[in-house]
Q: What sequence folds into this?
């Protein structure tokens, strides 16, 4: 049996950031993920200046696709304006691999099936034993399912459903476009251009809000593709979106049970206004690692529940 101090289940941004922080302080850990890296991951890839600081990313040395945004074109119920900002975008397939490569010697490809507690340790599939267990496996994290929802009570905030696609389209605009609350959508749609001709387009909204209206996300995806044609942002493309879901931040989440801690989308930390999750996920992973390193309470201190303050920041 593999024995370690910390077992991290999930190698996305939250799990990889937690692992990197533990490595920096010499804590023994194992990182499990069911996928082989690099893995495909469709995502707008919006990151803030704080993310660069948190993961010590130097844009000049970063080997992947990296885009700088100086302004966003925004529409809210037909009201159009340009918002000066200083934000970035990456491709998740590259960014996730870059994060994992820093801790790859601790990574094991393994799909977690069974989790139990025995003599003060967490036993995973009879092969791994750890004093601490980090649930970083996304919306359907097995740690969350086994230890936090075992009584049938949900521990996450409101569910967001999204459809998006990432593809090469060299003729597109270099401006980011965001459309809020259009045609009754309880959420927003986006057009995110990236370097090397890559664009990401998508639409996301409250699952409960759509159901209450008798509406569907598919209808809003079709409205988005029509708008992209009309605005001449994407023309003649055969769209093939990917669907996924995640939870928004909630005021009093259940973040820890014993020595089991949830981070990232397993916890539900995406911002309430824009559903941005990369930054909060990374921050939660670092916070969890620091709680273990210093033997202090695990909190979400310093993690914003809103994105607009970051959008308004012009700091590098």
A:
């Amino acid at each position: 049996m593999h024995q370690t101090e910390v077992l991290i289940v999930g190698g996305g941004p939250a799990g990889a950031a937690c692992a990197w922080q533990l490595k920096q302080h010499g804590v023994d850990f194992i990182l499990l993920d069911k996928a082989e890296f690099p893995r495909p991951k469709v995502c707008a890839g919006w990151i803030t200046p704080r993310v660069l600081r948190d993961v010590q990313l130097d844009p000049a040395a970063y080997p992947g696709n990296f885009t700088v945004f100086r302004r966003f074109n925004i529409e809210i119920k037909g009201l159009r304006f340009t918002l000066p900002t200083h934000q970035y975008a990456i491709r998740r397939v590259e960014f996730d691999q870059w994060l994992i490569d820093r801790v790859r010697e601790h990574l094991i490809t393994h799909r977690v099936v069974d989790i139990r507690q025995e003599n003060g340790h967490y036993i995973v599939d009879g092969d791994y034993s750890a004093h601490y267990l980090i649930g970083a496996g996304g919306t359907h994290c097995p740690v969350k399912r086994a230890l936090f929802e075992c009584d049938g009570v949900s521990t996450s905030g409101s569910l967001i459903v999204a459809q998006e696609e990432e593809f090469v389209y060299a003729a597109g605009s270099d401006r980011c476009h965001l459309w809020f609350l259009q045609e009754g959508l309880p959420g927003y749609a986006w057009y995110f251009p990236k370097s090397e001709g890559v664009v990401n387009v998508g639409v996301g909204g409250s699952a409960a809000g759509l159901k209450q209206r008798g509406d569907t996300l598919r209808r809003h995806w079709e409205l988005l593709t029509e708008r992209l044609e009309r605005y001449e942002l994407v023309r003649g493309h055969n769209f093939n979106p990917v669907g996924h879901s995640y939870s928004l931040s909630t005021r009093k989440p259940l973040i820890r049970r014993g020595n089991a801690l949830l981070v990232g989308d397993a916890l539900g930390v995406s911002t309430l206004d824009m559903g941005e999750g990369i930054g909060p996920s990374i921050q939660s992973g670092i916070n969890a690692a620091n709680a273990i390193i210093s033997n202090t309470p695990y909190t979400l201190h310093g993690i914003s529940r809103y994105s607009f303050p970051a959008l308004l920041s012009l700091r590098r």
About this structure: The chain has two domains: 2-67+90-157+248-311, 159-245. The first strand starts at residue 2 and ends at 9.
